[in-house]
Design goal:
mainly alpha
């Protein structure tokens, strides 16, 4: 099936196959519906990128799969960050690891708001630099430089620079 323009009939034709595929990926009917919806939204906004010789069904499956993988990665990153803030380690942490975690959280809290926002959008939410630039309505170069400064500052803290006094974030037990 090739296309010049994405039509309702073409979507209706592959919708049951997309939903079945999404159910196998998510193993959850509500999650599958959400995945199909986000995949179709992505397809509708970028259908012009579909080459005439490409198969619509295969193209939609690939979008759905990428959306699922991106969502799973984002979920894992979010859970790791959340576990740091809640103090729930996946394994028994040594006192040194707990001290390092406290220092990283304190360092993160000490970053300027604009750097913290970019670090969260890229590192936790998994947005691309261009998406962050569009979200924050700033130039792409500004995103890259702020992210670089934030990472450098956190790296310096991890390498032994002094942690900020009176951090506003802390690890909870």
């Amino acid at each position: 099936m090739t296309m010049h323009e994405l039509t309702d009939d073409q979507i209706r034709e592959v919708l049951p196959q997309l939903r079945r595929f999404a159910l196998w990926l998510t193993r959850n009917p509500a999650g599958a519906d959400d995945l199909v919806q986000s995949g179709l939204e992505k397809a509708l906004t970028s259908y012009a990128t579909l080459q005439r010789e490409e198969n619509l069904r295969i193209w939609l499956f690939s979008i759905l799969y990428r959306q699922f993988i991106d969502g799973e990665r984002r979920k894992k990153r979010y859970m790791r960050i959340l576990s740091l803030f809640k103090g729930e380690a996946e394994y028994s942490s040594s006192p040194e690891e707990l001290a390092l975690t406290d220092a990283v959280l304190a360092g993160f809290a000490s970053l300027p708001t604009d750097q913290r926002a970019i670090l969260l959008l890229v590192g936790v939410e998994g947005l691309r630099y261009r998406e962050v630039a569009d979200t924050l309505n700033i130039p792409l170069g500004t995103v890259m430089s702020r992210l670089s400064r934030a990472r450098r500052q956190l790296h310096e803290l991890a390498e032994g620079a002094t942690a900020p006094v009176n951090p506003s974030l802390r690890r909870l037990k």
